[in-house]
Write a structure and sequence with these properties.
The chain is of the alpha/beta class. The chain is about 50% helix and about 15% strand. The protein is globular and about 70 Å long. The chain starts with a strand and ends in a 5-residue tail after the last helix. It binds erythose-4-phosphate. The site of erythose-4-phosphate has 11 residues, from helix 7.
């Protein structure tokens, strides 16, 4: 399972990339706003921080305008993945870009039928937003299960990129269902490594090691 970081905070991306656990980055207009930085500058910087795909989202809604924006974004790095919304126009753009060999991430997916359309449009990634579904009383993970079944039924190569991940249990469930990627806020990636028994065990080992009076180096 691949791990993407869902942030436009370059310091966080650099720190997590150093762990070797990061396979890519996703951003969206809200994350760019949160960073307080220039969109094109920050995407270029992120693209240089990781060899993995970096999703940069178009903001226009018409086919022609989305294609124009995609042209600008594509030039920011060899690993730029163009993120388009799950609308008929977004899917049209997805097909056009995919035919040119561009990696496309179709975002804001909330139903299995939408995911089916994205696969048919040649998307490299489909982004179902599990947290936002949970927020309104639906079960985000049922959507992941349905998409997995549909994609496997027809051998679609589109990767399921679980998005809107809010906590480590989402990651566990996504992994058990065979999702290809989870994109997570930095805090969730860090939380995956944490266990109170690990901390407690380390404290005991440190205490006992001190009592031996030895050193390794
Ligand atoms: C994914 O690409 C999106 O950027 C992100 O996961 C949305 O998450 P949110 O619902 O927490 O805003």
């Amino acid at each position: 399972m691949k791990f993407f970081v869902d942030t436009a905070d370059t310091a966080e991306i650099a720190a997590l990339a150093a762990t070797g656990l990061v396979d890519g980055v996703t951003t969206n207009p809200s994350l760019i706003h949160k960073s307080g930085r220039n969109f094109l500058e920050v995407i270029k910087e992120i693209a240089a921080l990781t060899p993995g795909p970096v999703s940069a989202e178009v903001v226009a809604l018409s086919v022609d305008e989305m294609l124009r924006e995609a042209d600008v974004l594509r030039k920011l790095g060899d690993n730029i993945c163009i993120k388009v919304p799950l609308t008929l126009d977004g899917l049209t753009v997805c097909r056009r870009l995919a035919d040119e060999g561009v990696t496309v991430n179709v975002t804001l997916c909330f139903s299995a039928n939408q995911a089916l359309l994205a696969a048919k449009a040649g998307a490299a990634f489909i982004s179902p937003f599990v947290g936002r579904l949970d927020d309104i009383g639906f079960d985000g993970m049922t959507l992941i299960e349905d998409i997995r079944t549909i994609y496997d039924n027809y051998d679609f190569g589109t990767e399921i990129l679980v998005a809107s991940v809010r906590h480590p249990v989402h990651v566990l469930q996504a992994a058990k269902l065979g999702a290809d990627v989870a994109t997570m806020p930095p805090s969730v990636i860090r939380a995956l490594a944490h266990h109170p028994l690990t901390d407690k065990g380390l404290a005991t080992f440190a205490e006992d090691w001190l009592k031996t009076g030895q050193s390794i180096v």
